[in-house]
C-alpha cells in the first residue's frame, strides 16, 4: 500500500500514517498469535490428552499461529 501511495505522489504525512498503521496491526497480530500459542500449549493440549484427533487439531492450530506470527516478524525478532 505504501508503494501505491508513493507512486500516486501522496504526502509524507499519508505515507507516515500508513507505516504507523502497518506497525500497529503487526503488533496486534503478533500479540494475538502469541496468546493463541500459549493457550494451546498450556490448556488445550493438556485437555486433549488421550484423544489423538483433538491433539492433532491443536498441534495444527499451533503451527498455523506460529506461521502467521513468523510472517510478520522481522529477521531480528525471529
Order of helices and strands: HHH
Rg over C-alpha atoms, rounded to the nearest angstrom: 18 Å
* Secondary structure: number of strands: 0
Terminal Cα separation, in Å?
A: 24 Å
Binned strand content = under 5%
Estimate the global geometry from the Cα principal axes: rod-shaped
Q: How many H/I helices?
A: 3
Helix content: over 70%
Estimate the mean pLDDT confidence. 87
- Contiguous low-pLDDT stretches (5 residues minimum) are none
Compose a concise summary of this entry:
The protein has helices at residues 2-8, 12-47, 52-72. With 78 residues, it is an all-alpha fold.
Give your account of this protein's structure.
- The protein is mainly alpha-helical and 78 residues long.
- It has helices spanning 2-8, 12-47, 52-72.
Amino acid at each position: 500500500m505504501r508503494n501505491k501511495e508513493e507512486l500516486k505522489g501522496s504526502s509524507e504525512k499519508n505515507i507516515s500514517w500508513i507505516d504507523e498503521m502497518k506497525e500497529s496491526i503487526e503488533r496486534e497480530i503478533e500479540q494475538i498469535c502469541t496468546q493463541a500459542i500459549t493457550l494451546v500449549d498450556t490448556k488445550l493440549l493438556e485437555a486433549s490428552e488421550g484423544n489423538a484427533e483433538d491433539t492433532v487439531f491443536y498441534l495444527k492450530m499451533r503451527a498455523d499461529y506460529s506461521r502467521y506470527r513468523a510472517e510478520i516478524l522481522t529477521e531480528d525478532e525471529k
